[in-house]
Amino acid sequence: MFTDEALDSVSIKSLWRNSQQSAQDSRGCQTKAVHSAEAEVQTVSTTISSTQTDPLYQATEQLFQQNHEEPEPPGLKDFLQRVEDVVVRELVRNTRSHAFDGFQVNWEDHSNLVSCLHCLQHPSAVERGLHVTSVSWSCTGSVIACAYGRIDDGDWSTERSCVCTWNLDRRGLNPKQADLVVDVPTAVTALCCHPQQPALIAGGLYSGEVVVWDTSRTQDSTLVQTGMSADSHREPVYQVAWVPLQKKGEFGVLSASSGGRVLLWTVDSDQGRLALSAAYALVRQQVPHSSSSSFKARGSNTVGVTSLALSPWDPDTFLVGSEGGLLLRCSFSSKKPAAAPSEGQSVTPRAPAVFSFRPRSGPVHSIHCSPFHRNLFVSAGTDGLAHLHSLLQADPLLSLRVSDSYVFQVEWSPTRPLVFAAATGQGEVHILDLGRRSLRPAATIEQGAAGQAATCLAFNRQNAHLLAVGKTDGTVSVWQLSADLTEQSPRESSQLEQIANQVAE
Predict the structure, then answer these.
(1) With 373 labelled, which of 33, 70, 231, 303 sits at a CA distance of 20 to 30 A?
(2) 202 touches 243 (CB < 8 A)
């Protein structure tokens, strides 16, 4: 028997359990309904998104199948079979054709073929009206040396001049202040930097002396000189060049003057002088005459030398040009005594001429041998023409009109077999390309006042993009050449070979 209190307790516990269960059921129903609704909506949305891709893929595949099953256009197959042999034959022929060899698209404007980098000048030389007579690059390609003198009439022997150098790689380059100025008591007529030692420069003077300067010396730059002796020249020296001697690594200085002598000097540093090693005299009656013409010398019995060139291919061969227009091939190994008095020289002069080319109508100012072909060289002078010669023929292979005035210097490009430059008396420098169909210059350099002649030029052999030009206004300009003028094109060497093999008319 339960008491009233026990019954009340049972009733309370039962009500509490029922209320707890009801609360749990209520919470579970609310959470489930909210959760299921949200999850179901998100899933349906994703399902719809994926079903939108299926019709596009199926439509594309059906379209591809329809196009694939369509028949080919009428006659297409027959046409392809009919022209196949002809097309294949033309394609094979094109692979063997050389019609477009060397063709390159020129993306640059023609005026951008050359651009001026520097305009160098020595104020004192400009004030005195001195001319730049010669320029030469150092063997490193960073230093440009220039000589001052005169190319017009006047008493050069009483006028002082100088040699100046600029290092273009030097930070803070001052174009109006030379890095080095060497004072010279007379006009400097020729200049040539040493091929291996950047501090050495050989020069020729109007007085007939030959000098070697050492630019590394802080006090006196004169290393050695010939002085005025029986061995030295008596006339202006128009050309100097460094020549390799028999002893490996040693070089001598070769000089040529209007007195008709070509002299080879060795550097005697101990004695502080240039010692005469060999002498060559050009005498009129010993000059071989070409079969096509005869040479008529004027005045003196000697042949005044105005230009000189060494062959880079044959160490025994050198070329000379004369005041009277004579052009000669000479040999260092000649043993024939010269028909000229020794005049007290320590070395007996020899007659070096072995072959004569067709003479020009005036002085030959410049000769330069091709660095790409052993038989080719170019010459120029007062006739305004650039003559392309072969060592094997008396007549020129080609003559190009370069200027209506004098041509003072010509020089082959060190990187382009068919390109050379010419400095003219009209102040222009023409860069000519023998590979062009037109004989007009590939580029023309014009700068400075009108009437100022371009007297000299020099390509930089270490940096083919640089060309130095000296003028009568006393300035030396350094020009940058574009790739069109410096980079060799395909088959260019073979084109030069074809020119060399042709027979002169």
Answers:
(1) 303
(2) no
- Cα–Cα distance for residue pair 92/85, rounded to 1 Å: 11
Which amino acid, 55? P
Instruction: Look at the block and give the residue holding tokens 């070089």.
Output: 251
CA 328 to chain centre: 28
Cα three-residue angle 165-137-273, rounded to 5 degrees: 70
Structure tokens that stand for 484 in this block:
């069109």
Across residues 136-162, what is the average pLDDT? 85
- Per residue in 257-302, pLDDT (tens digit) is 988 999 999 988 777 789 999 999 998 888 887 544 444 544 457 7
Instruction: List the structure tokens of 167.
Output: 């290092």
Record the tokens describing residue 255, joined without a space.
Answer: 């000089």
DSSP state of 350: B
385, 399 in Cβ contact below 8 A? yes
User: CA nearest 486: which of 101, 104, 192, 100?
Assistant: 104
- What whole-number distance in Å separates Cα of residue 232 and Cα of residue 230? 6
Q: Are 261 and 276 in contact (CB under 8 A)?
A: no
Q: Record the pTM.
A: 0.76
Backbone angles phi, psi at 109, to 5 degrees: -70, 145
Cα-to-chain-centroid distance, residue 258: 32
For the chain, count helices (H), then strands (E): 5, 28
By CB atoms closer than 10 A (0-12, 13-18, 19+), residue 126 is middle
What secondary structure does DSSP assign to 81-133, as a single string?
A: HHHHHHHHHHHHHHHH--TTTT-----S-GGGGEEEEEEEE-HHHHHTT-EEE
Task: Give CA 449 to chain center in angstroms.
Answer: 26
296 contact partners, CB below 8 Å, separation of at least 6: 324
Q: Are 308 and 254 in contact (CB under 8 A)?
A: yes
Q: Which two tokens stand for residue 58?
A: 């199926």
Rounded to an integer, what distance in angstroms lies between the CA atom of residue 358 and that of residue 336?
23
CA-angle at 87, arms to 82 and 92, nearest 5°: 145
Residue where the block lists tokens 């100012």: 365
3-state secondary structure 219-265: CCCEEEECCCCCCCCCCCEEEEEEEECCCCCCEEEEEEECCCEEEEE
Q: pLDDT for 164-175, tens place per residue?
A: 999 999 888 999
User: Which residues fall within 8 angstroms of residue 268, CB to CB, at 6 or more apart?
Assistant: 224, 274, 275
**pLDDT tens digits, 412-424:** 999 999 999 999 9
Cα gap 351→338, rounded to integer Å: 4
Beta bridge partners of 398: 388
What burial class does residue 279 get, using C-beta atoms within 10 Å of its C-beta: 0-12 exposed, 13-18 middle, 19+ buried?
A: buried
CB neighbours of residue 403 within 10 Å: 22
Task: Classify 150 in phi/psi space as left (phi over 0), alpha (psi -120 to 50) or beta.
Answer: beta
